[in-house]
Each structure stands twice: as structure tokens, then as C-alpha cells.
Amino acid sequence: MKKQKPIKVLYITTMTREQILEKPSNYCFYIKNMIQDNRINVILFNASNYNKKNKIRQVWLLLKKIREINADVLYLPKMTGFYTLVILKKIGLFRCKIIAWKYTRFNKYNNFLLQYLIQHLVWNGIDKLYMMSETHVQQANKLGIMVPNKCVSLKWGVEQEWYDHFIKPHTDNEFTVIATGKDSRDYETLCRACDETQTKCIIITRRHESNIKVAQKWKSSKWCSISFIEDLNLEHIYEYEYIMEQTSKASILAIPCEQRSNGVGYTNLIEGLPYCIPILLTNNPDVPVNTEEYDIGYMIEPHDVENWKKHILFLKEHIEERIRIANNIQKMTKNEYNHQVTANYIINDILTITKEYKIFQSLKNK
Predict the structure, then answer these.
(1) 3-state secondary structure 76-135
(2) Per residue in 93-110, pLDDT tens?
(3) How far is the C-alpha of 272 from the C-alpha of 266, rounded, in Å?
(4) What are the φ and ψ backbone dihedral angles of 8, each rounded to 5 degrees?
(5) Residue 259 confidence (pLDDT) above 90
(6) Is 13 helix (H, G, I), strand (E, B) or coil?
(7) Which member of 30, 153, 272, 278 has the lowest number of beta carbons within 10 Å of its beta carbon?
(8) How far apart are CA 178 and CA 298, in angstroms?
(9) In this predicted structure, what is the pLDDT of residue 358?
(10) Does 360 score more than 70 pLDDT?
(11) pLDDT tens-digit map of 27-75
């Protein structure tokens, strides 16, 4: 029997193969699992090698690369910045399949012509779209934006083994709240809740204007400590490891978010699962993981200081509740939120989509 050639998957990134393999598989959307699968030949296109200001040249170089290597699949970790490329595929300038991730709901345009063009030239040019929220998928189906089996929600499974080397026994018994989100965060509410409950709180974030204001206000607090990644002089590639190491010191993970039309804090939540600690999350529309439904923490309404205080105090005083929640999270990361489950789903889609296309092409050429 003739041995089949590996499927060529082109992945756009600023990272090297070695850097990808050093990160957890969920960090680069499971391209690490694909690299380790002998049925797939992952080809990296380094997006940092060209002038980002010249978008036409960007697209041209990428198009040239796709045709040069005769890629079977273009795998996109996001849609932002790649709409033009999808349109070029739709009008026939290249043939490879496109599999992509999308974090937010679809826009609904009042202009009928614009809605029609975007739907037929962009969304119909994608062969499989993974969305974080089932609500977004339902919206896409309701609006008829994509064929149902082409747009699905997919759980963002974590590589527990990678995070395990950060998880060590606490050297002290001080109950600690940690928050590491970068933007759209409501750290004012969290600081108030921790200060008023006399709870140690460590916030690691970026120098966004709102975060700077909160840091200035609470700089003299005995309980709240806010530091900025930019001040640590770390190489960008190692920032992630630093944040994950700091997260290991937490008794609970706090994700206090501003009110947004789309769910925020999902990445933060996923990266908190391996630590098996309760997760307190602001309740926003379209939150992909409701911590109360999964019984892994609590949902709190925006700017609700009193409920933040209530849940922090309850978890501080009841270690048995923290242990119970830890057991629930362990079940999640071993099953539906396991990286291998997610990766296998994507790899199976790649194998199926490319096989169907090759069968179609062979019939067409007869």
C-alpha cells in the first residue's frame, strides 16, 4: 500500500519551532500537537520577517508562500488581519483549506450589500471555524452566516503536564488572591474587596491607563500589590512563564472584568485551570465557561464589591470547599478540557477536510 504524504499545514507565527515546543500546547492553539504528529507536516511562516505597515506586501508574501509550498491547510489562530487572505482564496488565487479560530460574535451589518459580501467572500471562504462560545455559534446559525457543521464551539483544553512543574507546596499558609489579566479589567473592585476583607492580593498586569490609575490609588495598601509586566525587564517570550509561576502562589484566581458585550477573561480562566484553585469571574454576556455551572468557582456581577467580599471570605474560611472545587477542576482537565482531546478534534478535522478535497479533485479531473 502506498504510504501517504504528511498533510502540509501552514501556521503563521512570530515564534520558532523550538519556542512553540517549549510552551503548553494550548498557548499556540495545539500546533505543538500537530508538530508531534507524523501525519502532519507543520510549516511555520514567520510573520515578524516583513514590514507590518505594508499590509499589501504582507498578504502578497503569504500568498506566495502558500503557493510555493503547495500547502494543504492554512491554520489561523485568529481572524483579525486575515480577511483579505480569505477573500483571495474565495476568488481562486489559492486552493488550500482554511481552518481558523474566532473569539467574538459575528458582526451584523445594517448595510445589506456589506453583510452579503462579508458573508460570501469571508465566512464562506473558511472550511472550519472554531469559536470559544456556543452562544456565538448559535448566533451564526440563526443568522445563516455559516453552514452549521463548518462553525463549531471547541473547548480550549490545557496541557496539564506542562503546568505541573510550576505547582509546588506553598511555603506559607497565607490565603492569597491573584489576578493576572491585562485589559478590560476592574481592579478597583478587586482591590476594595481584598482591602476590606484584609486579604493578600497580588495583581500582575500591563500599563493600561485604567490599571495605572488603580495602582496609584492603592500603592499604600497593606493588602494589595500591583506590578506591571513592562517594569520587570523580561524578554517577551518568557513573560508567560513568569506569570504562570506567580499564579502557582494563589489560593484563588480572580478575574474581575469590566462590563463588555462579549465575554472577557476566557484565556485567563483556561490558564488558571491547571492550578486547581477556585475561580472568581465577573459575569458578562457570552462568557464561554460559567464557573458556577461547572462548579469551579463563582460568577459575580460587574462592580459588585460586596459579593467579591462574600466569596473571598467564604473560600478563605472553608478549605474543604477549595478542595472540593479542586477535584472538580481536575476532572475537567482530564476530560473535556484536556489538550489532547482538543488537539485530536482539530487533527481529525484536518485529515477529514483534506481527504474530502482530494477525493473531490480526483473525481473532477476524471
Answers:
(1) ECCCCCCHHHHHHHHCCCCCCEEEEEECCCCCCCCCHHHHHHHHHHCHHHCCEEEECCHH
(2) 999 999 999 988 888 888
(3) 10
(4) -85, 115
(5) no
(6) strand
(7) 153
(8) 15
(9) 58
(10) no
(11) 999 999 999 999 999 999 987 665 566 777 778 888 888 899 999 999 9
Q: What is the pTM of this model?
A: 0.92
H-only helix segments in 150-260? 160-164, 187-196, 209-217, 236-247
* Strand, coil or helix: 74: strand
Residues pairing with 202 in the sheet: 178, 225
In degrees rounded to 5, what are phi and psi of residue 77? Answer: -75, -10
CA distance linking residue 256 with residue 322, whole number of Å: 19
Provide the residue type at 237 as one letter: I
Phi and psi angles of residue 281, each rounded to the nearest 5 degrees, phi first: -130, 135
Q: Considering just the CA atoms, what is the radius of gyration of the chain in Å?
A: 22
Q: Which amino acid is at 244?
A: M
Q: How many CB atoms lie within 10 A of CB 221?
A: 14
Strand order in the sheet with 97-102: 40-46, 7-13, 73-76, 97-102, 128-131, 151-153
Q: Give strand pairing partners of 110.
A: none
Task: Say how far apart CA 251 and CA 179 lie, in whole Å.
Answer: 11
| Run of H or E residues at 344 | helix 339-365
3-state SS assignment for residue 354: helix
Position 114 scores a pLDDT of: 86
Question: Per residue in 152-174, pLDDT tens?
Answer: 999 999 999 999 999 877 666 78
Cell 448566533 -> residue? 139
In the sheet with 279-282, reading across from the earlier edge strand, the strands are 224-228, 200-205, 176-179, 252-255, 279-282, 297-300
